[in-house]
From TrEMBL:
It comes from Roseibium limicola. Residues 31-318 form the Transglycosylase SLT domain. InterPro entries: Lysozyme-like_dom_sf, MltB-like, MltB_2, Peptidoglycan-bd-like, PGBD-like_sf, PGBDSf, SLT_2. It holds the Pfam family SLT_2. One of its GO terms (molecular function) is peptidoglycan lytic transglycosylase activity. GO terms for biological process: peptidoglycan catabolic process. Keywords: Signal. It comes from the Bacteria. SUPFAM superfamilies: Lysozyme-like, PGBD-like. Residues 1-24 form the signal peptide. This is Lytic murein transglycosylase. The keyword Metal-binding does not apply. Residues 339-393 form the Peptidoglycan binding-like domain.
Length: 393
């Protein structure tokens, strides 16, 4: 499964400063005692003892889940490499077929939630290849393992309680339900709490089955994306061309201008017109690579997944499914190897910049630090780290 990143609800853990003391006290220790505590909490919240017992009767620690959790990391591929790898001809062709096959449910999605078919379809493709690769980890075991583990109980214990609620509703069989190693379920990979809140019965059978029902998955994704703040009728990403004398320090997600202001600076849409909305000029591989305007709806992609390369790829993929041309790859400057990136991060950290972990990943902190240092050194401040910058430092 070409799904190297975490889904939305997992990305939201960065917003949680620390686990509440009560949850920290409830994690770890004897697993049977832990499960009894979960059952008691579920019943106290109004769920039935029978559902709690049924859900957790055979729950066990899955060491493979812990190994995945400890080893998780983001692909260190650049945008051109990653996007070319995941936006295959197969995915383009099957995306078009699925938008046609499920036209009625996609019509409902846009009428009821304002979310266009290409946006949902791109996520559907990147998450599970249109349902073809949904993961083979037992969902209850995965959630119980991660809730028992003391690294992030504040996220996973509520998800385990939510799984009990799904069992009570008849929407989850604890013996047979499988999904991703972190407990996400179905064709668009959602956690139990999100399924309970935003799950929609697209096929009219009275249940929300994101694993088997594409109609349920499509309509649920639409409801969830609307909840994240999708703005009906507005674009999300647009490829543009830019003049060579642009002030590159104005680029990046931390800087916005109205579309008309970008146009006055010489930014031009490759097709159509630039929308007069707040927009950020994003340069995934610097000023010599592909260039895009990211509109307010692009923020929803960052809520779904906080990896810049994944979100830019997903947003671009959606524009392709909507009829946009293949991007102009340009001729970007060479980037850094993993070792060079870690060396650069160490140097930037030594200069007082917050780059997060020294992990070789070009995250937002490292991009911002690179841009600041480029500007200070009189280099084009496009946020793209190069050997030339590393040598200057």
């Amino acid at each position: 499964m070409l799904k190297p990143f975490r889904r939305a609800a997992l990305a939201l853990t960065v917003l949680l400063a620390s686990a509440p003391a009560t949850l920290a006290a409830q994690c770890g220790g004897d697993f049977s005692t832990f499960l009894r505590g979960v059952k008691q909490e579920a019943v106290a919240k109004g769920l039935s003892q029978r559902a709690a017992d049924t859900t957790l009767r055979n729950a066990q620690i899955d060491r493979k889940v812990l190994a995945r959790d400890r080893a998780q990391g983001v692909f260190k591929l650049d945008f051109l490499t990653f996007s070319k790898r995941v936006i295959s001809q197969h995915r383009m062709q099957h995306g078009a077929k699925n938008m046609k096959k499920y036209a009625r449910i996609f019509d409902r999605a846009i009428k009821e939630y304002g979310v266009p078919a290409p946006v949902i379809t791109a996520f559907w493709a990147l998450e599970t290849d249109y349902g073809g690769f949904q993961g083979d980890f037992n969902t209850v075991n995965a959630l119980a393992t991660l809730a028992h583990d003391c690294r992030r109980p504040e996220l996973f214990r509520p998800q385990l309680i939510a799984a009990i609620e799904m069992v009570q509703h008849g929407d989850l069989n604890p013996a047979t339900m499988t999904g991703a190693w972190a407990g996400e379920i179905g064709q668009v990979q959602m956690l139990p709490e999100d399924i309970i809140k935003w799950g929609r019965d697209g096929d009219g059978d009275g249940h929300v089955n994101l694993k088997q029902s594409s109609a349920d998955a499509i309509l649920t994704a639409a409801a969830f994306i609307q909840h994240l703040g999708w703005r009906r009728g507005e674009p999300w990403l647009q490829e543009v061309s830019v003049p060579g004398n642009l002030n590159w320090a104005d680029s990046g997600l931390d800087h916005t201008k109205n579309g008309n202001d970008w146009a006055r600076l010489g930014v031009k849409a490759r097709s159509g017109q630039i929308a007069n909305l707040p927009a950020s000029l994003i340069l995934p591989q610097g000023r010599k690579g592909p260039t895009f305007l990211a509109y307010p709806n692009f923020a929803i992609y960052l809520e779904w997944n906080q990896s810049f390369i994944y979100t830019t790829t997903a947003a671009y993929f959606a524009t392709r499914l909507g009829g946009a041309s293949v991007y102009n790859p340009g001729n970007p400057d060479a980037g850094l190897s993993d070792g060079q990136m870690k060396q650069l991060q160490s140097k930037l950290q030594g200069m007082g910049h917050d780059v997060g972990k020294i992990d070789g990943i070009l995250g937002s902190g490292t991009r911002n630090a690179v841009q600041a240092v480029q500007q200070k050194l009189g280099m084009p401040a496009d946020g793209w780290p190069t050997p030339a910058l590393l040598n200057r430092l």
